[in-house]
Specification:
This protein has 243 residues and is an alpha+beta fold. It has helices at 40-50, 121-126, 128-140, 164-173, 190-200, 225-228; strands at residues 2-6, 11-15, 24-29, 54-57, 66-68, 84-87, 92-98, 102-108, 113-119, 147-151, 161-162, 179-182, 185-188, 208-210, 236-242. A 6-stranded mixed β-sheet has the order 1-2-3-15-7-4, with helices on one face. Strands 5-6-9-8-10-14 form a 6-stranded mixed β-sheet. A hairpin with an 8-residue loop joins strand 2 and strand 3 (24-29). The longest helix is centred in the middle third of the chain and has 13 residues, at 128-140. The structure holds zinc ion. It holds the Pfam family Cu-oxidase_4.
């Protein structure tokens, strides 16, 4: 289902269900042996080499706003503050950063529309996934039942410890299902909470795929804020677009 791919520019993890036939180019950067993985410049170089004319990067703020890659948010050089980007035109690549938070990829084959979201606990609580489905419906009339999701590498439910206040907020916003109490603390699995939100919006359970990788358990491949700290320097790039 997932495969580490590489070329002369760098390495990335690819979700194989969206093969070349779909026209999608998608991935999450993976550390090089002994190195930190691709820089933003290298990801842009990779995109350029694949034939993308435009790269759209968000200024992520742990919220629920989703913007279209095709609207006028991008003039003036300042990227919009948002945690989700959707698009349908060929040649445009969306780009976000993650390091424990979930990179959420979505695709609607009928219209060729795609979306890329950054979802930490705040994004889950505020409903960035639901917002993306609303935005996709507004952009292309897509129905949620035709949307496929891939929840990429992120911190797993055995590694992600949170305090009781955050746990209560997630339980109120979504469900207690993805939360495991452990003494005073809880362990949260954001990739169990996100499918609950998706299915409540009409997404089919069979169209939701979850990465086998945890950023902390597989720290040799991925950056993890919990494992490494220094989030400003150590992070992965997640990208999605259509050619
Ligand atoms: Zn883990």
């Amino acid at each position: 289902m997932e495969k580490i791919t590489e070329n002369e520019t760098g390495r990335w993890l690819r979700f194989e269900n969206w093969d070349a036939e779909s026209g999608l180019f998608q991935g999450v950067t993976v550390k090089s042996p002994g190195g930190w993985g691709m820089s933003e410049e290298q990801v842009r170089e990779l995109a350029d080499g694949k034939g993308f004319s435009t790269v759209r990067r968000l200024r992520q703020v742990h919220g629920s706003r989703v913007v279209s890659a095709e609207e006028g948010h991008w003039s003036g050089g300042n990227p919009p503050e948002a945690d989700g980007i959707i698009g349908s035109l060929p040649g445009v690549l969306g780009l976000i950063t993650v390091a424990d938070c979930v990179p959420v990829f979505l695709f609607e084959r009928g219209s060729g529309s795609w979306g890329l979201l950054h979802a930490g606990w705040r994004g889950v609580e505020s409903g960035v996934l639901t917002e993306s489905l609303n935005a996709l419906r507004a952009l292309k009339g897509c129905s949620a039942e035709n949307v496929e999701f891939y929840l990429g590498p992120a911190i797993c439910g055995n590694c992600y410890e949170i305090g009781p206040e955050v746990a209560q907020r997630l339980i109120r916003a979504v469900s207690a299902e993805g939360l495991r109490p452990a003494g005073e603390k809880y362990y949260a699995d954001l990739r169990r909470l996100l499918p609950i939100q998706a299915e409540a919006s009409g997404v089919k359970a069979g169209n939701i795929f979850t990465s086998a990788y945890c950023t902390r358990c597989h720290n040799e491949l991925f950056h993890s804020w919990r494992a490494e700290g220094q989030p400003a320097l150590r992070r992965m790039w997640a990208f999605l677009g259509r050619l």
